[in-house]
Amino acid sequence: MSYVVLARKLRPTCFGDLIGQETAAQTLRNAVISNRVAHAFLFSGSRGVGKTSAARILTKALNCLKTENGDPCNTCENCYEISQNASPDVYEIDAASNRGIENIRELRENVNYVPSRCRYKVYIIDEAHMLTIESFNALLKTLEEPPPHAKFIFATTDPSKIPPTIISRCQRYDFLRIPVKKMTDFLKTVVKKENLEISLQALEMIARNSVGGMRDALTSIDQILSFSSNRATDQKVAQILGILDRESRFTLIEAILKKEVANALQYFQKLHDLGYDFHDILADLLQTVKTVSIIQTVGKNTPLFQELFYDDLEALESLGKLVGIDELQQIFHLLLDLEEQMKLSAHAKICFEMAILQISSVAPLIGIPEMINEIKNIQLGKSDSDLKIMRPEIKKNTTEEKESGIELLKQKSPLEMPVEKKTPADSSKIKNILHSEKKQNPDEKPFEEWFIFSEKVKKNSLKLASIIRNAVPQSMDGPDLKLIFKSGNYSTMLTSESKKTLEKIASEISGHSVKLICENRNVVTSRRTIAEHDQLLLEKEKEFKRNKAKEFPMVKDFLKVFRNSKITSIELSEV
What we know:
Elements: H1 6-9, H2 22-33, E1 40-44, H3 51-63, H4 77-83, E2 90-94, H5 101-110, E3 121-126, H6 133-144, E4 150-156, H7 164-167, E5 171-174, H8 180-193, E6 197-198, H9 200-209, H10 214-227, E7 231-232, H11 234-241, H12 246-257, H13 261-273, H14 278-298, H15 310-320, H16 325-344, H17 348-360, H18 368-379, H19 405-410, H20 424-435, H21 448-460, H22 462-468, E8 471-473, E9 480-485, H23 496-510, E10 515-520, H24 530-549, H25 553-561
Parallel strand pairs: 1-4, 1-5, 2-3, 3-4, 6-7, 9-10
Antiparallel strand pairs: 8-9
Helix pairs in contact: 2-3, 3-4, 5-6, 8-9, 9-11, 12-13, 12-15, 13-17, 14-15, 14-16, 16-17, 18-25, 20-24, 21-22, 21-23
């Protein structure tokens, strides 16, 4: 007799066997008891959560000759034939291979015939989202007004691909991922029956790796039984599953958090030699860093960790004592960046090793309270050698109020400075500095008539004004106005009509007829275009504001603490 895998041998046979789907199971059972069964159902959920099993149980319950409290008896002729896929009135269709409209037309023709043995003719369409739009449209009328003896059950892992017109004609049941604890408890009974010695940590590892799918978990148990029919260690289970076991995961992350680069790289090489996938290692590290961050923030006595073993919580809490929450956040984002790098690179191992080196150089961030404390010390006259920034311990599950950085900033302190109001004197200083250029190097700036000319052109045409801003003007005293464009083909942008407009404006200013001459060539001249002149004024204004900001005592203190910093932008507010 051929071997039957556990996933088939332990398949649920009644509604009570559906682990983790109590709501859907109870609703379907009550529908059978009260004889209020819909003509079409849609079962959606991830793989291995019991969708097809629930469809078969419902089919047996509808056709069972001696139903017991809504559940099938699993002993009568109809139940036996349905369980063996031998019933002539139950059609289990794989939509992935029967997705065309011809298959649906055949279904529509057969649905009108009454069942030969069972009470209902049931169509179970698995992976229903694989059907084409034409196939769904062909089913619409049949689903809306089906024969009284026909029932339809759609099962899908992607309900978003099912047309709304189909969903509206069905009763929808969402099958949830099976919780780790419930799956672990069920696996305990399975390994006990199979006489397999395995730890709870290993069973939890299997349950987590199955991502809520019981079929995947039972397949893993089958694989472990093939490896060792009597006993399986945690390391062997992890190796079979292709994931890190508890000890390996904690050893690697501890070496990384302790900045023991040599040990971390050496252990990573060991995992590589054992054949572990880099993406699986990265996923384990991300999960561990996330859990440690949550423990540091809200503590370990939270419902989030009710499925974790106590030893794991203790180990994770000890990892959290190695670094602060800000460093954990930096490490987490570096690992996320590593994930993107490995997708784009053909050298995933090198990327991983360089990421370990980068994480080892992560330094703790200085918080606002510590920053203010150091500035206060500077103002009190302490030398740099006497300054020590102490990182406050992160408190968890406490109601004691602490002062935040914002509250500290609001308190009265020597740092508190009155906001300087902008006075006319300040405005005049800026104007004097900005316009002092007019008195210096007169040959470097455009002559006065050119500014007047540009303003008149601007009033006439903004487009023309933007073009001549990039020209170096010659004297307007003579009969010719010569414009030289240093770069670009600005002169070609001037049409004959535009040139006439410019000549007219120049003639009005000079009082005599002026002819416009334009050239495109590189020139060596100290005279600037208006665009260059305005840019220079803007740079001078920025430099003036930066120097003004450096005069504030608070800014001076910040620059003492952060010696390599510089002011990049300044925002002024009217008070």
